[in-house]
Amino acid sequence: MGPLASSGEVESKTFFVGQNDPIHFNSKKPPRTYKSYESGLASVLPDYWDSPGNESAIQSLDKSASELRARYGWGTEVKYSGRIKALDGLLGLQISGSNEEAKLGSGYNATVYLANDKSTGNKYAVKIISSDSGDRFLQPDNGEYLGLSLLPHKGIASICALIVHNTVDKTYAAIKGPQSILSENCQDYRIRCVISEYIEGEDLFDTLNGYWSILEKTDLAIQVALQGSAALGHYHQHDILYRDMKPENIMISPGREGSQVDVKLVDAGTIIRLSDAKNVDATIVGTKEYMAPEVIDVYCNQKMDSICDVGVDLWGLGVTLIAVVTDHDLFQLVKQYYKDIKKPIDESLRKEWDKKAEWNKEFAKMNDKTKREILNKNLGLLLNNPSFVRKYNPLVNVIIGLTKSSPEDRMALADVQKTLAPILTPASLQEDIRNQSQVIYV
Hints:
The protein is of the alpha+beta class and 442 residues long. It is 37% helix and 14% strand. The protein has 2 domains: 53-198, Phosphorylase Kinase, domain 1 (2-Layer Sandwich), CATH 3.30.200.20; 203-435, Transferase(Phosphotransferase) domain 1 (Transferase(Phosphotransferase), domain 1). Helix 7 runs parallel beside helix 14 (386-402).
């Protein structure tokens, strides 16, 4: 055990955060101003599989992470009266201002705060996890502990360190890698704080609450598809599933390296080694509106032979893109479609949770023509606009490809890139600018 530090009193307020619940980030930006379609085209998306921008992003992250110092050494255990005192005492990180002012987002049993390093002034996003969140013990092959060992990628919010609580010795320690804690002792520790890089911006859920034209939403969806698929690809290349792809877990910030926006996946609380995800006990994770049919089969129908793989993330990306271009959850679209064609709906079939999940399964079983009909609803004359169709049709093809019923039939991430990247070449963008004469809001 490491040296003891004098314990201070911890504020009485308990922080509740949940790893699987939507994190709604506060929108502190001014009201969204009118933006022309032409200005929305004035960017070129680089190749997000292997772009020079990733190197600069990694260098920036490495600098921020390397400047984070553990006062008593990484892994040294010290007694404190609570996690906030431990965060300050072990890492010198202090919540910026009052709790409410510093709050970036919150969920069921966790809250995310902006924190400053008192010695360097660097900013970090700190997720404070409640002791009521259940057995969030360290597990080398899932969650934020696994996230510590992941190589940096500019499309993923990197984890810089964890504050963990030894429930046997009642001590706290700061760790920045799996080597900080002996693997055989992992179950003695609970994650109390997750220190990640701070991202200036807002999540995609809040971004979509602005006044967007269908043209702008299409542009945004293409960016999310390209950058999001690259981030998921990084996880998959390292034998990791993300498992909770949804707008609330995607941060949007002003673009660099030629892109209109930067897209980053946040919250590694649900990531898991692909080999472990094949264990059915670890399958039921995620958010119901974005769950893949094979996950729903396990939860609703107890189909225990359903095994999850990368198809879970492919489905989540597809349904997220549907939310961007339609402003609706998938179950709402399918339900409305059945009402439009006067198909009988048995509302007494399942409880509300299961109903939403079953609507998603209905969409998965539909043929491509029906899916396209649902996604094209209300577009009207825009379908006669060649500049719009040139971008929208490939995007719909990607959505349809990602939402196949069978995981084996879903579009590969590399094919998402191949389908959408040519849309944003300089020549294509200039052609759109010449042809586009008006902005249509729907």
